[in-house]
Amino acid sequence: MNYLLYYIIILPISSLNNFFLYLVSDVLYLIVGKLIKYRLKLITKNLKNSFPNKSENEIKGIRRYFYKHFSDLIVESLKGFTISEKRINKKIKIKNPELLNEMAKNGQNIILIGGHYNNWEMSAQKMPLECKHELFAIYKPLSNDFFDKKMKDSREKFGLIMIPMKETKNYFNTDDKKPRAIIFGSDQSPSNAKNAHWINFLNQESGFLYGAEKYAKEFNWPVVYVSIQKSERGTYEVSFHLITDQPKQEPNGKIIKDFANLLEADINHNPPYWLWTHNRWKKSK
């Protein structure tokens, strides 16, 4: 069944040109957003709690555009299996790679921290083509071995190296001559609320994963925020913002709070592009 799904459905869709790819997305939007209304109650609850001052019509508008964006994300994720270097260079523009490349030139290892906003998958896939660091990304392996390998191969096709979550610290301890950058997605709901760092985020008390700050302080790696903006349908712009180059000197919790503030500003700028289907606030302090 895995082989049939991959070779009969996923690869043919992945091979489509932009016109037909986004035609599939339009059909998918009608199914996901109009017919089955995927996670409608959760999305609506998340939006209302995050934007208490917005009207019912404004919430509905954000939700509608989110479903359209979410459908685009799905087909773009499928495109990642077969995308060429030429195509990904057109879809993802990195505005200031020199910020990272100057650090690489100086032999500095860094932590890149971002959220599930706009197309984080394809942006990470593109980064090794312009960034001089050896790039790693933390991920949770899929339970399905076949699709775990296919996803890993897709993500690594331009040089990104995927690190299973449980092996994270081993990569910080590795003595490597080439400067390294490790990508953390730090806006998920923490598995253990007791170990989370709690911040007011989108008008709610929100637990944040503390790993990025913990490793930054322990190994004294500068921390850079990754901002991703949609310039038009199917194309994105990535920009880097230095949070700190002296993490050991920062008060506990400040790095994560600064990250949360930057992500919140991006979300407030364009609300539909965050992953509202995620049950972000399922745990309380």
Give short descriptive properties of this protein.
285 residues; two-stranded antiparallel sheet; globular; alpha/beta; 7-stranded mixed sheet
Could you please describe the fold and organization of this structure?
This protein is 46% helix and 19% strand. The chain has a seven-stranded mixed beta sheet, with helices on both faces. It starts with a helix and ends in a 16-residue tail after the last helix. The model has no long low-confidence stretch (mean pLDDT 95).
Q: What Rg do the Cα atoms give?
A: 19 Å
Beta-strand residue fraction: 15-25%
Order of helices and strands: HHHHHEHEHEHEHEEEHEEH
Major sheet summary line: 7 strands, mixed
Which regions have little confidence, pLDDT < 50, spanning 5+ residues?
A: none
Average pLDDT taken over every residue: 95
Number of helices: 11
Based on helices, strands and strand pairing, what is the structural class? alpha/beta
Which strand order do you get reading across the main beta sheet?
Answer: 1-9-8-2-5-3-4
Distance from first to last alpha carbon? 42 Å
Helix content: 40-55%
- Global outline: globular
Question: What's the β-strand tally?
Answer: 9
